[in-house]
Amino acid sequence: MQAVLERLLGHARAHLALQFLRFGTVGGAGFVVDTAVVYALRGAIGIYAAGAAAYVVAASFTWAFNRIWTFRTARKANAMRQWAVFLATQGVGFVVNRGVFAVLVTYSEVCAAYPVLAIAAGVAAGMFLNFAAARRFVFAEN
């Protein structure tokens, strides 16, 4: 796949495209984690608190897998510092992601009944911003 992309896009753009595909794959797994936590906690702490807790759990999960797979060629900073920077840079993505989530579960009966729909919309809204922030500020290339 990398060879095909390099022929079509050139080396630098192929590298970027592969990173984005990996980021999306990790994000898909993070979506599963996010959804599972929301569903597990919503009865105990409410939908909004469950959404906030799920975001932190899912963001930590995606940081770990992006560190070891998506951005494996990036410089390796101290893990705790890098995790904290990842969570901080993803803060804007959090506002976009959970803003969409909150609006949808508040104003859509369907999304309130099936929060997975609101989670998916929030993830899609924040994905490009999160990728750019992660690539530039957290996992900068050597």
Which properties best describe this structure?
142 residues; mainly alpha; 88% helix
Number of domains: 1
Query: What is the number of helical segments per DSSP (H or I, 4+ residues)?
Result: 6
Structural class: mainly alpha
Unreliable runs: none
Biggest sheet overview: none
Question: Between the first and last Cα atoms, what is the distance in angstroms?
Answer: 24 Å
Radius of gyration, in Å, reads: 16 Å
* Strand tally: 0
How much of the residues is beta strand, in percent? under 5%
Q: What is the global morphology?
A: globular
Query: Helix fraction?
Result: over 70%
Q: What does this molecule look like?
A:
With 142 residues, the protein is an all-alpha fold. It is 88% helix and 0% strand. The chain has helices at residues 2-9, 11-45, 47-70, 79-107, 109-113, 115-138. The model has no long low-confidence stretch (mean pLDDT 90).
